[in-house]
């Protein structure tokens, strides 16, 4: 058998893991597929012949969710021959993060889209089509590592935020409870991570909370390490 006859010929797809924090939960946007397999799935689809992976990811995310574009970062490739029951498909996953993203408009091309708690997918209580549970699990594992030594956690925050709000992002991403005082000391000692806005916000406890914004750092000189479980 010649090398040409053995050359692989199959479609390439993209799948997008879009995450936000709403109602005090880490949530992922999913699409209710109108075609088989008729299950919830991550937004995504096939790449056109003259299209880059990045363009395809932007197109499928907008077309299937109706949401505004998000900055997307490539996570990994999935190539198991039986990952799609219809035919052999290789897919490339992307991760996007946004602050308190809105509900998707109804009636998108692929089917109704909505936000669901990521925890429900990870614990198998909400099944997804194809290998999309693995895609989500790997994206969150990537995120959990990324927030240790980068400013990725602030992608979930508004332009100005309190230390308590930033701590809650870490708690939801890592699925842990953090000591407020220890977290404050760690964050304030990371060069270039955050800077004060000079404003304060009234809180329910009566003591105003200082507001901060993103600092100039992209990578953290002093990592914010996840507590040992």
UniProtKB/TrEMBL annotation:
Going by the UniProt record, its keywords in alphabetical order are: Hydrolase
Which PROSITE patterns does the record associate with it? Answer: NUDIX
Q: Which GO terms describe its molecular function?
A: hydrolase activity
Top-level taxon in the UniProt lineage: Bacteria
Give residue ranges for domain Nudix hydrolase: 8-140
Which Pfam families did the record assign? NUDIX, WHD_NrtR
Q: Which SUPFAM superfamilies match?
A: Nudix (SSF55811), Winged helix' DNA-binding domain (SSF46785)
Name the UniProt record assigns to this protein: NUDIX hydrolase
